[in-house]
Write a structure and sequence with these properties.
There is one protein chain. It contains five helices and seven strands, in the order ββββαβαβαααβ. It has helices at 67-80, 91-97, 110-113, 140-148, 159-173, and strands at residues 3-11, 17-26, 32-40, 63-65, 85-88, 105-108, 184-185. A seven-stranded mixed beta sheet has the order 4-3-2-1-5-6-7. Helix 4 (140-148) crosses helix 5 (159-173). It is globular and about 45 Å long. 40% of the residues are buried.
Length: 186
């Protein structure tokens, strides 16, 4: 496995996927080597908490199409890149919303990022369970701020930019992919 994927989805008020962002990264450097962004029709018109972010920061979709066409293209993209492992923050959410990708090994970034023993950015005074897991404040925005020191960071809620930010969190955690073994889901 020379490469891995980080995936994020955004959903409508009705819990339908309206966009999918995927970043392919090198397993050694954690640098992005390719990306794809899909806006799913007609769900992009159904409204959702983050509908306004579909084209945030000038992001344009690779494809704006129906779900079967998008997931077929995405599956081909992953296969062409030799991907077997998919990472996501709160991966159970994204995996549940993308059953077409159930054949991949899914790993939850949050299951590493939320634990003191894996996340060097968690302050000593943070409220943690006996297991070392943060009791609160372990979402993407909070963890990104902890690790980067950038208190002004705000999650965009655009599936592609969020996938890139989640890759950045993995890079800042400085954990090799094998250390995500216990974070495998499904």
């Amino acid at each position: 496995m020379d490469r891995f994927a980080v995936i994020d989805t955004e959903t409508t008020w009705g819990d339908d996927v309206m966009s999918i962002g995927v970043v392919i990264a090198d397993r050694e450097s954690f640098e992005a080597v390719d990306e794809r962004y899909y806006v799913l029709t007609p769900y992009n018109m159904h409204g959702g908490m983050y509908s306004g972010a579909l084209y945030a920061k000038g992001v344009r979709p690779h494809l704006e199409c129906c779900r079967p066409d998008a997931t077929s293209d995405l599956d081909g993209f992953l296969l062409d890149n030799g991907i077997s492992s998919v990472f996501a923050y709160n991966a159970s959410f994204d995996r549940r919303h993308l059953p077409e990708l159930a054949g991949y090994d899914w790993y939850d970034i949050m299951k590493v990022a939320a634990y003191r023993q894996h996340n060097p950015g968690i302050p000593n005074e943070a409220d943690c369970c006996r297991t070392g897991r943060l009791r609160r404040g372990y979402g993407v925005e909070s963890v990104y701020r902890m690790l980067s020191g950038d208190r002004s960071y705000n999650e965009t809620h655009n599936a592609l930019t969020d996938a890139a930010d989640e890759l950045t969190i993995m890079k800042m955690l400085r954990r090799c992919l094998e250390e995500y073994g216990p974070a495998r889901i499904g």
